[in-house]
C-alpha cells in the first residue's frame, strides 16, 4: 500500500463529500486513479461503513456499485475493518441486485473482502449468463475461500471449461493452488487446459498446477513451452522451477531447459 499518495491517506474532506466525488470517479477508466474511492476505503471508519451501507440501500444502481466497492476493501492498508458487517451487507445486496454493473462489483467485492461466508453466494452464480459475473465468481472463489471446499472446487473445475479465457484463467489458478484436492479427474482437467487452451496464461497456470502435484506429464510440455520462439517463456518459469524444486527467484530460461531435459533423460 506504500504506493498510495500521502495526500490520499490524509484527505480531510468529510465522508459525505468524498462519497459524492467518488461517484464521479466510477466513470473513469480502470487504469485512472480514483483517489476519493481509495481515501474512503483506507479511512475504514464506522462513519465510512455506515455511508457505504447507505449507498448499498440506494435505489440508484451506481450508488449501490460504489457502496459495494468501498465495503470490499474497507480498511485495506491496516487490515480489514468491520469485515462481518461488510459481508452481511454484501450478502444482502447480491441476493437483491438486478443491475449487472452493480452485481459484478458486488461479486468482486467478496474476493477483495476475503470472507468465507461468501462462498455459497458465489457458487450459486457460477453458471450466470454474463461472463463478467462468471469471471468475478472465479476470481472471488480463488481469493475469498481458504481452504476451498469441495463444492467450490467442483464449480472451479466447470469454470475451467468456460468459453471466456479470463474465466478459465482464474479457475485454473484456483485449482492449481488447491493441492489438497488431487486425483485423476483434477489432473486430467489441468492436463487438458495445458495442452488445449489457446491462452498462454491459462496453460501456464495449468502446468503449474500439475507441477505442484509432481505430475511428470508436465515435463515435456514445459520444455516445449519454454523452447517455443513465439511464446512468452517467463510465464512458464514458475511451473518449471516448482517441478525441479528450485527456490531461487531469478533463474535463466536456458538453465531451466537444461535441467528439464536432463530430468527427461533419466
CATH topology of the domain at 1-112: Leucine-rich Repeat Variant
What's the total count of β strands? 0
**Biggest β-sheet strands, sense, barrel:** none
Low-confidence stretches: none
Overall morphology? elongated
Number of helices: 16
Q: State the order of secondary-structure elements, H for helix, E for strand.
A: HHHHHHHHHHHHHHHH
CATH class assignment of the domain at 1-112: Mainly Alpha
CATH architectural grouping of the domain at 1-112 = Alpha Horseshoe
Percentage of β-strand residues: under 5%
What is the distance, rounded to the nearest whole angstrom, between the alpha carbons of the first and last residues? 46 Å
Rounded to an integer in angstroms, the radius of gyration calculated over CA atoms is 21 Å
Residues in helices, as a percent range: 55-70%
> Structural class per helix/strand content?
mainly alpha
Mean pLDDT reading: 94
Which features characterize this protein?
266 residues; elongated; mainly alpha; 0% strand; Leucine-rich Repeat Variant; 16 helices
Topology:
Layout: H1 6-9, H2 15-25, H3 35-43, H4 46-56, H5 61-72, H6 83-96, H7 100-113, H8 119-123, H9 131-144, H10 150-159, H11 165-177, H12 184-196, H13 200-212, H14 218-227, H15 237-244, H16 253-265
Helix pairs in contact: 2-3, 3-5, 4-5, 5-6, 5-7, 6-7, 7-9, 9-11, 10-11, 11-13, 12-13, 13-14, 13-15, 14-15, 14-16, 15-16
How does this model look, in words?
- This protein has 266 residues and is an all-alpha fold.
- It has a domain of 112 residues: Leucine-rich Repeat Variant (Alpha Horseshoe), CATH 1.25.10.
- It is 65% helix and 0% strand.
Amino acid at each position: 500500500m506504500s504506493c498510495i499518495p500521502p495526500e490520499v491517506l490524509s484527505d480531510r474532506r468529510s465522508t459525505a463529500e468524498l462519497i459524492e466525488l467518488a461517484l464521479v470517479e466510477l466513470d473513469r477508466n480502470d487504469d485512472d486513479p480514483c483517489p476519493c474511492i481509495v481515501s474512503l476505503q483506507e479511512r475504514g471508519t464506522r462513519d465510512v461503513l455506515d455511508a457505504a451501507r447507505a449507498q448499498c440501500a440506494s435505489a440508484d444502481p451506481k450508488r449501490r456499485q460504489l457502496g459495494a466497492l468501498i465495503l470490499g476493501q474497507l480498511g485495506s492498508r491496516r487490515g480489514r475493518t468491520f469485515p462481518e458487517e461488510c459481508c452481511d451487507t454484501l450478502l444482502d445486496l447480491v441476493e437483491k441486485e438486478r443491475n449487472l454493473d452493480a452485481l459484478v462489483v458486488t461479486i468482486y467485492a467478496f474476493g477483495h473482502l476475503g470472507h468465507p461466508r461468501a462462498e455459497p453466494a458465489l457458487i450459486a452464480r457460477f453458471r450466470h449468463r454474463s461472463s463478467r459475473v462468471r469471471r468475478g465468481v472465479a476470481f472471488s472463489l480463488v481469493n475469498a475461500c481458504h481452504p476451498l471446499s469441495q463444492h467450490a472446487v467442483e464449480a472451479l473445475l466447470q469454470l475451467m471449461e468456460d468459453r471466456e479465457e479470463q474465466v478459465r484463467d482464474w479457475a485454473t489458478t484456483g485449482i492449481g493452488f488447491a493441492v489438497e484436492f488431487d486425483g485423476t479427474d483434477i489432473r486430467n482437467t489441468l492436463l487438458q487446459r495445458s495442452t488445449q487452451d489457446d491462452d498462454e496464461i491459462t496453460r501456464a497456470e495449468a502446468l503449474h498446477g500439475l507441477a505442484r502435484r509432481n505430475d511428470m506429464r508436465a515435463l515435456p510440455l514445459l520444455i516445449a513451452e519454454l523452447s517455443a520462439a513465439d511464446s512468452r517463456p517467463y510465464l512458464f518459469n514458475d511451473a518449471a522451477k516448482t517441478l525441479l524444486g528450485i527456490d531461487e527467484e531469478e533463474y535463466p530460461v536456458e538453465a531451466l531447459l537444461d535441467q528439464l531435459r536432463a530430468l527427461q533423460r533419466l
